[in-house]
Write a structure and sequence with these properties.
Blueprint lengths: L6 H39 L7 E5 L6 H8 L12 H9 L4 E9 L3 E8 L2 E7 L2 E6 L4 E5 L8 E3 L5 H14 L2 H4 L2 E8 L2 E6 L3 E6 L4 H11 L6 E3 L7 E3 L1
Parallel strand pairs: 1-3, 7-8, 10-11
Antiparallel strand pairs: 2-3, 4-5, 5-6, 8-9, 9-10, 11-12
Length: 240
């Protein structure tokens, strides 16, 4: 085998080698670009990785079907194109939903975890009863008054602050006292009263110093009376 040692021949061989190297680079880049395009199409444009299952957990008042309908996820939608923030926003408009988390579970599942509102009290609406959570949001209506929930009321013109004051007062009560509450009325934010079992009335006043008022009331209830006034907790009074 003979090897050319002349300068022209060596230069020509180096040129051919460079061209072959450049060709290999171009071919590799084209192959990579093709693979990326195919992968992009598979993930974003193909139903091969489309949504097949929508799993719903954490519901009680709502049904999984109602959550799926509210989510509005079309079967076969490429999983990568599911806007989880938008799905969560849509589901947050459902009254019983307090919080919701939406996650993609590859290859073909969307997982929805719902945390529903917990009733803190009930309001009368005509012949029906409306469940209200701790923040004052009405989220469900029932034909019968549910047991174990106090009735809260506030004049319409007093607005949300009065209703929130009634709920704040309820939240401050010890459990044993709260269990005895039958009704909380807020004529305004500054004038909250409660009706307890055994036809007892509590004059609470505003939600300010509620912890102190709750502690004083717990002591006063050991006395037999029909009215317990803790609106000024440092000088409480009772009346028979």
């Amino acid at each position: 085998m003979s090897v050319s040692t002349s300068l022209p021949h060596r230069a020509a061989e180096r040129g051919r080698a460079r061209r072959r190297s450049r060709l290999r680079v171009v071919l590799v880049l084209a192959l990579v670009a093709g693979l990326v395009a195919a992968a992009g199409w598979l993930v974003l444009g193909s139903s091969a990785l489309g949504v097949e299952h929508v799993q719903v957990t954490g519901v009680d008042r709502l049904t999984p079907g109602e959550v799926r309908d509210g989510a509005g996820i079309e079967p076969g939608t490429p999983l990568a194109r599911v806007d989880t923030a938008e799905v969560a926003r849509r589901l947050s408009s459902l009254a019983p939903v307090r919080e919701v988390e939406v996650m993609r579970r590859w290859p073909r599942t969307v997982e929805i975890t719902v945390r529903e509102r917990t009733p803190a009290a009930v309001q009368a609406r005509g012949t029906s009863w409306v469940l209200v959570d701790r923040s004052g949001v009405a989220f469900a209506t029932q034909e019968r008054r549910p047991a174990g929930l106090p009735l809260v009321s506030a004049p319409v013109d007093a607005g949300a602050p009065a209703l929130r004051a009634a709920l704040d007062v309820l939240d401050a009560l010890p459990i044993d006292v709260r269990d005895a509450v039958r009704q909380v009325r807020a004529a305004s934010r500054e004038h909250v009263t409660m009706r307890l079992t055994k036809d007892r009335t509590v004059v609470w006043g505003s939600p300010e110093r509620s912890d102190r008022k709750a502690a004083v009331l717990a002591v006063l209830l050991s006395r037999k009376a029909s009215v317990y006034d803790v609106s000024a907790p440092d000088t409480p009074t009772t009346r028979k």
